[in-house]
Amino acid sequence: MNAPARPKKSFGQHFLHERRYIERIVAAISPRSDDFLVEIGPGEGALTFPLLTVAGKLTAIELDTDLIPRLQQQAAGIGELSIVHADVLKVDFTALAQRAGVTRLRIAGNLPYYISSPILFHCIDHAAAITDMHFMLQKEVVDRMAAEPGSKVYGRLSVMLQVACRVVPLFDVPPGAFRPPPKVDSSVVRLVPIPPEERHDADPARLHAIVKAAFAQRRKTLSNALRQLMDAEAIRAAGIDPKVRAEMLAPMDFVALAKGRES
């Protein structure tokens, strides 16, 4: 039997090991044999093998070459495990679905906390090729993802995810469920992309620019925060008071701003 893998700080590795949380995550995902499952960062395979047992096949994206042989060895006799050795930020999920001959992927993973936001934004870029996502993240990040307008943690991440997905926090996971224990609490969250026919039609680049500028200095009014992008008249034309702050706007208000005219 292989000795436990040594977690690497450079990859932000914290291996989930507590069985009851593993079972809760697998139950939340509820894999089926006809799913095309993709796991980001399988680590020691805590989620990989239970998912593989039910689905029969799984594609894992792993950057740590030391973990790949042991994952392949342990998968033998359980199911078909395909491992993509790559930085997940460079993986084209849309192309992956096309090569597999499927319409959409289901993605899961215990994400490295230090790059969780870039991974989330990368996945959203491929939302049309994804059925749902189940991620373990730092609890603080999940709180920000699901925050409502007016909350102190409502911001750019909240808006950009909520205009693209339904965000559903599921349950918290304590540090002791990992090896080594992280210094923060964790949470599991479900993201369900909004169907293409129901998604907004604002220009993604302009929406991103407006949201980024609006929250760059939270205490500024919209007319001040967005002065390089649109004037007060244009903000009013979108049905929004130029004197309010970004934190008071609903996600779709930002879509209305992005669809309005530029200064």
TrEMBL record:
Residues 21-195 form the Ribosomal RNA adenine methylase transferase N-terminal domain. Its main location: cytoplasm. GO terms for molecular function: methyltransferase activity. It catalyses: adenosine(1518)/adenosine(1519) in 16S rRNA + 4 S-adenosyl-L-methionine = N(6)-dimethyladenosine(1518)/N(6)-dimethyladenosine(1519) in 16S rRNA + 4 S-adenosyl-L-homocysteine + 4 H(+). The keyword Transcription regulation does not apply. Keywords: Cytoplasm, Methyltransferase, RNA-binding, rRNA processing, S-adenosyl-L-methionine, Transferase. InterPro entries: KsgA/Erm, rRNA_Ade_diMease-like_C, rRNA_Ade_Mease_Trfase_CS, rRNA_Ade_methylase_Trfase_N, rRNA_adenine_dimethylase, SAM-dependent_MTases_sf. S-adenosyl-L-methionine binds at H14, L16, G41, E62, D87, N110. Its EC number is 2.1.1.182. Transmembrane segments: none annotated. One of its GO terms (biological process) is methylation. The keyword rRNA processing applies. It is found in: Cytoplasm. Coiled coil: none annotated. Belongs to the class I-like SAM-binding methyltransferase superfamily. rRNA adenine N(6)-methyltransferase family. RsmA subfamily. Specifically dimethylates two adjacent adenosines (A1518 and A1519) in the loop of a conserved hairpin near the 3'-end of 16S rRNA in the 30S particle. May play a critical role in biogenesis of 30S subunits. NCBIfam families: ksgA. This is Ribosomal RNA small subunit methyltransferase A. It comes from Dyella nitratireducens. The lineage of its organism: Bacteria, Pseudomonadati, Pseudomonadota, Gammaproteobacteria, Lysobacterales.
